[in-house]
Amino acid sequence: MSLESNLKKCLELVEHAQIPAICWLRDCNDLGMMINVTEAYRSQERQNALYKIGRRGIKGERPVTWSLRSKHTSREAMDIDIIGKKTTYEDIEIIGRQYGIYRPEDLVKLGDLRHFQCEKAKMPVRTMNASLRRAQRLAKASPEPRRGRILDRIKSVDS
């Protein structure tokens, strides 16, 4: 998956989590931790279908979901895959925690290593101005109409 695809997935999250999630992905990328966001928002219909598959998975694959209620349906979670073997989910979580993005211990214990929650997402004060400047540069380089949406979000964070 491309960086642009990952960024689009971040824009599916609740508004307060979008810029922290983008900064998290940027930081991981800058550190050579290549990740792919496989899913952010999930409709309740999709959640219901995944729940029917349940713990058994499809054809022996890993479990899909354990609940009808999901942070994905409220736009507060992302599932990711690691690209390459040098990075671990723990490495990625360390970077995410500075933005309030984390993996719930109960899901890690169940084997769901890929699920990261964003309901507590925030920008660290020390990096907010630098992140906003970087986001502005990215927005200016983006094609319309995306540019306007990104700049609107930056203005709402900046004020």
What can you see in these coordinates?
This protein is mainly α. The protein folds into 2 domains: 3-122, 2-Layer Sandwich (Muramoyl-pentapeptide Carboxypeptidase, domain 2), CATH 3.30.1380.10; 125-159, no CATH class. It is 49% helix and 9% strand. It has 7 helices and 3 strands; from the N terminus they run ααβαβααβαα. The chain has helices at residues 3-10, 15-30, 44-53, 89-97, 105-109, 125-141, 146-158; strands at residues 35-39, 77-82, 115-117. The chain has a 3-stranded antiparallel β-sheet with strand order 1-2-3. α6 (125-141) packs antiparallel against α7 (146-158). It is globular and about 45 Å long. The mean pLDDT is 80.
Report the portion of residues in β strands.
Answer: 5-15%
Assembly status = single chain
Our Rg estimate from Cα atoms comes to: 16 Å
Count of helical regions: 7
* Unreliable runs: none
Topology:
Layout: H1 3-10, H2 15-30, E1 35-39, H3 44-53, E2 77-82, H4 89-97, H5 105-109, E3 115-117, H6 125-141, H7 146-158
Antiparallel strand pairs: 1-2, 2-3
Helix pairs in contact: 6-7
